[in-house]
Amino acid sequence: MKRFFKFFAAAIFLFSLIRGEPLFALPAVSRQIEDASGEYVFYRDNSFTRESYIGFLYYDESTYEAKYFAPKTKTDSGEILPAKNLQILFSVNPASQHLELTGERFVTLPLEEDTQIINYIHDLLYELTARRIKLGALDFTDYSKSKADFLSEGKIVHDNYAQFGGNVTMIFDSIVPIFNLKKIVDYTGSDAFVICTTGRLASSQDKSFSEFVPPSAMKNSEEKKSDKKIKSAKAMQIEYTAQLNEKQNFRQEVNADKNWQTQSENMWTLGDSAFIFLSGFAFPQEIAQKGSDFVAAQILRRYTASNGYAYSDWSALGVFVDGEKIKINASTYNPKTGRNLTDIKTFGRAAENFYGCFSFSAFIEGYKKNRGYYDKIVKSYSFKIE
C-alpha cells in the first residue's frame, strides 16, 4: 500500500477554496480570465523539420520566459540529432499598447547555430501578441454545444500568417493561458502549431516548465502489469457527505463493488490500479457572481492543466458540459515515474459558489482493458442536497 500512495500522490489535486490573487495579462490584451503567476503553455511546432516544441511561461506583468525544446531524434538518413534546449527570459513594458521588449537574458547558453531559433522566438512573441490584441474580448467557449473535437472548439479566426504557409485558421479559447491560442491550422488543413499541454508552477522549486518532456517520449511506457481483467464482486455504494451550510448537507454517491477498499472518509482504491476521490470546493462570492460560464471556464482552466511532472496531454482531452455537470476526460504522463494515467473528473454544481468533485484515476493500460467496468462506475456519479 505504501507503493500505492507514493504513486498516486502526484495525481491528487487539492480541492480547496480558490482565493483571489494578483492577476495580469499580456500588454493591451483584453480578456475575461487573466493569467496567474507561474502559468505556462507548450505547443508542438510543425514548421520545424525535426520534432520541436515551444513553451511560454508567465511570471508577472513584465516578465515572461520562452523555451524551445527538441528531443533527441534520428533522421531518415540515420543521423542522430542530440536534444536541444533553449530558454530565454524576457522583460516587457506592461504599460505599452503593444508588445515592447525591454530586455532579455538567456537561461541556457545558446550556440551560434541557435541564432535562427532565437530570432524565430522573438517573431512568435510579437506576432502572437499582435494577433491576440487584434482579436479583442474573447467569449467563453460553450462546451454544452460542443460537436467538434476538443482542440477544434473555440473562437475561430481566419488570417494570413506567412510563417505557417499563408492562409491559416487560428482557434482561441480562454482556458488557455497567455495567448489563449489552441492551435494554428495551415491551408492544407494540417496542424502547424498546436497546444500539447498547459500548467502552473507550484513554487520556485517547481521545474516542470524547464524540464518539460513531450507526450511522444512516453508513448511506450505503459505498465503492462496493471492490465489484468477485474473480477466481478458484490455491489457496494461509495458515498461522501459534506456540510454545505447550517441547514444543508451535500451528498455524493458512486456505484462500485467490494473490489474497492476504503482508505479515508473520501478516498477508495482498487489495489494499486485505480483510485476514487470525492471532495468539494467553494469559489469566493465575487467569482461566483460573475456567472456560471465564468466559473466553468475557471474550473476547466485549472483542471485541464498539468500538475507538477504529471503532464496533461491535450491531444487526448475531452470536455463535456451537461446541465449542472462538467466532465473532464484526461490522460497524464509523468516522465519522472514513467507512468501514464487516465484521469477523469466530474464536477457537480451544488450551489452558486460550491461544486462537488468526483475524481477517478487508473493506469492507462488497465483502464483500456477494463473500460466497460470503469466507465460504468464513472457514469454512476450523482450528487444531491439534503
Helical percent range?
Answer: 10-25%
Given as residue ranges, the uncertain stretches (5+ residues, pLDDT < 50) are 1-23
For the sheet with most strands, the description reads:
9 strands, antiparallel
User: How big is the Rg?
Assistant: 22 Å
> What's the shape?
globular
Beta fraction? 35-45%
Q: Give the strand order of the largest sheet, numbering strands 1, 2, ... along the chain.
A: 9-8-5-4-3-13-12-11-10
Class based on secondary structure composition and strand pairing: alpha+beta
Mean pLDDT over all positions = 89
Number of strands: 24
Helices, strands, pairings?
Layout: H1 2-8, E1 23-24, E2 35-36, E3 39-45, E4 53-60, E5 63-70, E6 73-74, E7 80-81, E8 84-92, E9 101-106, H2 115-135, E10 155-161, E11 166-172, E12 181-185, E13 191-200, E14 235-243, E15 249-257, E16 261-264, E17 267-270, E18 274-282, H3 285-288, H4 292-303, E19 311-312, E20 318-322, E21 325-334, E22 339-351, E23 354-363, H5 364-369, H6 371-379, E24 382-385
Antiparallel strand pairs: 1-2, 3-4, 3-13, 4-5, 5-8, 6-7, 8-9, 10-11, 11-12, 12-13, 14-15, 15-24, 16-17, 17-18, 18-23, 19-21, 20-21, 21-22, 22-23
3D structure, described in words:
- The relative contact order is 0.15.
- The protein is built from six helices and 24 strands.
- With 386 residues, it is an alpha+beta fold.
- It has a nine-stranded antiparallel beta sheet with strand order 9-8-5-4-3-13-12-11-10, with helices on one face. Strands 16, 17, 18, 19, 20, 21, 22 and 23 form an eight-stranded antiparallel beta sheet that branches.
- The model is unreliable at 1-23 (pLDDT under 50).
- Strand 21 (325-334) and strand 22 form a beta hairpin.
- The protein has helices at residues 2-8, 115-135, 285-288, 292-303, 364-369, 371-379, and strands spanning 23-24, 35-36, 39-45, 53-60, 63-70, 73-74, 80-81, 84-92, 101-106, 155-161, 166-172, 181-185, 191-200, 235-243, 249-257, 261-264, 267-270, 274-282, 311-312, 318-322, 325-334, 339-351, 354-363, 382-385.
